[in-house]
Design brief:
The complex is a heterodimer of chains A (249) and B (195).
Chain A lengths: L8 H7 L4 H6 L11 H7 L4 H12 L14 H33 L4 H41 L5 H9 L2 H7 L4 H14 L6 H50 L1
Chain B lengths: L3 E6 L3 H11 L5 E7 L5 H6 L4 E5 L5 H10 L4 E6 L11 E6 L4 H18 L11 H11 L4 H8 L3 H15 L4 H10 L10
Parallel strand pairs in B: 1-2, 1-3, 3-4, 4-5
The chains are: A mainly alpha (249), B alpha/beta (195).
Chain lengths: 249, 195
């Protein structure tokens, strides 16, 4: 189902409660009564079109944002992605670590196995950190530079040089599959780990892993379907304008 | 055949030593701990045995509660003076009597070892993959490259790649660290081998 501006915000949560984390990142708090998505966005000073694109990408993995809706500035997108990064490092990852730590403490007979899981997750954590760092240090600044050039009257040669050294295409190609290890970890717990005595902890851990995975997938979709197409289009237009400008000059 | 490991907990020196000498007559057995009290349960659990034989006189509610919570893969054998149905918190796999004959005791233990091994084949050749794939997986987990594995096993790199694809498809595990954990959990390699 596609979420539209007329739908009640409460129903958005009913459709997929994981969307709570999306609302959280927009600074929208619960208690919105029967207000529609449009009303709640207005009240919270949130760009409606942007919110709809983000929340629909989140609840429906096959959702494709409509081109004409991509009018919002790149800064909105990167700010949102930045917030998802912060959530991973400040909330999801520490919670998973805490659960694994508890499992290590409570388990007597297969401590070695759980310690192994812990090691595996630590490696994953590092990978995730590298991944988000690269986006923050290379990709986001590049996207901002492209947007600035796009909005300026005259195309500067420095931007063309920048684009020759790096393009959003490169990012898309080097975009490694950060979800793979998480997928493995889930499967190891579901299929192969001898069940520890404390099944509750194990279930909680799985829940957290699924939730992180869902969020990472969503994060990747926003990059693929919103950020990358938008930047690619700007790159093309900048190139075109530049060649026209140099012809006229 | 894999070794079966035992912990014997019995307060009487004579009975303890007698029972141990009996168990040691069975091939592929190993006594990893022998003690005369239950004062240090953590120590017992840390030994991760296949079997624990314990005298019923050493049991009380606290001990059985603690044991039943922490033994998942251990088979518990009750040593007592007569048949009694006590300490039901623990799932006893066998009851050995103090005055039982040598033959009868040997028979019981042999049967338990046989059951254990036939019930847990996946510990040594996992059900999910073939023996050849297990060979490949072992080498992947040990950190060898496709080329090195090919040379070691006298097959082409292409064959190694095909095996890898099949392993990943069968197990649902894609990354090398993930495969390594699988290999350790299934005792294809030892944790120490990876360091």
């Amino acid at each position: 189902m596609i979420i539209t501006k007329e739908i009640k915000m409460a129903d958005v949560i009913h459709v997929n409660y994981y969307a709570l984390s999306v609302l959280n990142r927009f600074g929208i708090e619960l208690g919105f009564g029967d207000k529609s998505v449009e009303e709640v966005c207005k009240q919270n000073d949130v760009d409606l079109d942007f919110f709809l694109d983000i929340v629909n990408t989140f609840v429906d993995k096959d959702y494709f944002p409509k081109k004409h809706l991509q009018t919002f500035p790149v800064k909105l997108i990167t700010d949102y992605l930045q917030k998802t990064h912060n959530d991973y490092h400040n909330s999801n990852v520490p919670e998973i670590e805490e659960l694994i730590e508890k499992m290590v403490d409570s388990c007597q007979t297969q401590k070695d196995n759980i310690v192994l899981l812990k090691k595996f997750f630590n490696e994953y954590k590092e990978e995730l950190q590298n991944h988000t760092n690269r986006e923050e240090e290379a990709v986001f600044p590049y996207a901002h530079a492209i947007e600035n050039a796009f909005n300026s009257d005259k195309i500067d040669t420095s931007v063309i040089e920048l684009m020759q050294n790096y393009s959003i295409e490169v990012f898309q190609n080097e975009h490694d599959n950060i979800e793979e290890k998480l997928f493995d970890l889930k499967n190891i717990i579901i299929k192969y780990l001898p069940q520890p005595k404390d099944v509750k902890l194990c279930k909680k851990l799985l829940h957290e892993l699924f939730s992180l995975e869902q969020d990472l997938n969503d994060h990747a979709r926003i990059e693929e379907k919103v950020l990358v197409p938008k930047i690619r289009e700007m790159e093309e237009i900048i190139n075109k304008r530049f060649s026209e400008e140099s012809k006229n000059a | 055949m894999p070794k079966s490991t035992f912990i014997v907990i019995e307060q009487s020196y004579i009975i303890r030593k007698g029972l141990i000498s009996l168990i040691e007559k069975i091939p592929n057995t190993q006594i990893i701990l022998q003690i005369d009290n239950m004062n240090d349960i953590d120590n017992i659990l840390n030994h991760d045995p296949d079997f624990i034989i314990i005298n019923s006189n050493l049991l009380d509610k606290n001990v059985t509660d603690c044991l039943s919570k922490n033994i998942e893969n251990v088979q518990m054998i009750l040593l007592s003076e007569n048949h009694k149905n006590s300490f039901n918190e623990i799932n006893w796999v066998e009851n050995i009597l103090i005055n039982e004959t040598q033959n009868s005791i040997l028979k019981k233990i042999n049967k338990l070892i046989g059951n254990r091994i036939s019930n847990q084949p996946q510990r040594y050749t996992p059900d999910e993959i073939s023996e050849r794939e297990a060979d490949i997986l072992r080498n992947i987990a040990l950190g060898y490259s496709n080329k090195e594995i090919a040379d070691k096993l006298f097959i082409s790199t292409h064959t190694v790649v095909t095996h890898r694809k099949n392993i990943t498809r069968k197990l649902g595990i894609k990354t090398v660290p993930g495969l390594t954990i699988y290999a350790i959990l299934n005792k294809l390699i030892d944790l120490d081998d990876t360091n």
